[in-house]
Amino acid sequence: MKTRLPADRLQEKSPTTLVANHLRQRYHFSPVVAEALTDDLQLLSHQIHGASLLAEGQILYPAVKSDEPAGKALKNCQYVMARLTMFAKSDIAFRQQHGLRELKKRILHRITEEADAQGGALTYEDLSWLLFADRKTIGQYIQELRARPLSPAPRTPMPVPASRITILSSSSSCSTTPRRRLPNASTTA
C-alpha cells in the first residue's frame, strides 16, 4: 500500500479536482482530457465573470473602512467587503516546513495586507475570529511579526493597536488601521 502524507492528499482536494472527476465519471474522459477541459473551463469562467468570483480559499469579509475615525459606533461605521485569502495552495507546504504557528502568522499578514489594499481595516477581534485564535494570541503574533527585520519592499499596515480596540459588544466602536507596518510578506513566507 502506498503511503502518502496528509498534505499530499489535501493538495488533491480542490474545485479543479471536483470538475475533473465529474468529467471523467460523467463523460468517461481520460484523466488528461478531463484536466485539460477543466483548465479551459476555468479560463472561460474567468473571462466571462472576470474578477467577480472568489478564488479558491477566498472569502468576503466586512472590514471597517480605513478612513473611519476611532471611537465611532460599529453600527454607524461604513464597511468594505474585503476579499481575503484564507487558504493558498502554498500554505500546505509552508505549514509542513514551518509549523502551524508560523502559518497563522503568514495568513494574518496576508489578510491584513489584502484588507488594506481594498480600503479596509481588520481589528484584533476580526483576526481572532478569522484565525480561530484568542485575542491575546493574535497580539503575540503581531508582536512577533513586528520584531522581524524590515525589508525595503512595501509593507502592510497593522491592525488597530490593543489600546484603541474595544472588545466587540453592543457598545463597541469601529477603529481604523494605524500606519504601523508589518515586515514584508517575503520575510514571512
How is the main sheet built? 3 strands, antiparallel
The count of domains is 2
User: What is the average of the pLDDT values?
Assistant: 78
Q: How far is the N terminus from the C terminus?
A: 34 Å
> Rounded to an integer, what's the Rg over CA atoms?
20 Å
Q: Count of helical segments? A: 8
Helix percentage range: 40-55%
Give structural notes.
With 189 residues, the chain is mainly alpha-helical. It has two domains: 6-50, no CATH class; 56-188, no CATH class. The chain is built from eight helices and five strands; from the N terminus they run αααβββααβααβα. α2 packs across α3 and α6 (124-131) packs across α7. It is flat. The model is unreliable at 151-173, 175-181 and 185-189 (pLDDT under 50).
Topology record:
Layout: H1 6-11, H2 15-27, H3 31-49, E1 58-65, E2 72-73, E3 79-85, H4 90-98, H5 100-117, E4 120-121, H6 124-131, H7 135-147, E5 173-174, H8 185-188
Antiparallel strand pairs: 1-3, 1-4, 2-5
Helix pairs in contact: 2-3, 4-5, 5-7, 6-7
